[in-house]
Design brief:
Number of domains: 2
Number of strands: 0
Shape: elongated
Largest sheet: none
Structural class: mainly alpha
Helix content: over 70%
Distance between the termini: 47 Å
Strand content: under 5%
Length: 108
């Protein structure tokens, strides 16, 4: 809501500063959630980043890794597909993809 006001006011410098502050605040919250072992909270905060800012390939990959921890397999695959479209040679994403395929093959 605050960003809509700032964008309508035409103060792009202030808008960018507020967006950067919000982004850093979300990242800090994610780090805190992980330090407390709360993967679900980290995922919830990441969904806010995705909604408001979009995700980089690296963030899609890391979100996939977190989703794997809570066994949300279909979402892991979706996130990795996006990541691998953006960075087809990313070693960590390829390793996660391999893990998912192993889990899929082991599941009846």
């Amino acid at each position: 809501m605050w960003s809509q006001y700032e964008s309508q006011s035409g103060d792009l410098e202030r808008l960018n500063k507020l967006r950067e502050y919000a982004f850093k605040t979300y990242l800090s919250g994610i780090k805190s959630a992980f330090n407390q072992g709360d993967v679900k909270q980290a995922l919830m905060l990441m969904s806010h980043i995705e909604h408001h800012f979009g995700l980089s390939a690296e963030m899609h990959r890391e979100q996939a890794a977190w989703l794997l921890e809570v066994l949300r397999i279909q979402e892991v695959e979706n996130k990795l597909l996006v990541c691998l479209q953006m960075m087809p040679d990313d070693e960590r994403a390829l390793e996660l993809w391999s893990k998912i395929q192993t889990i899929r093959s082991d599941t009846p």
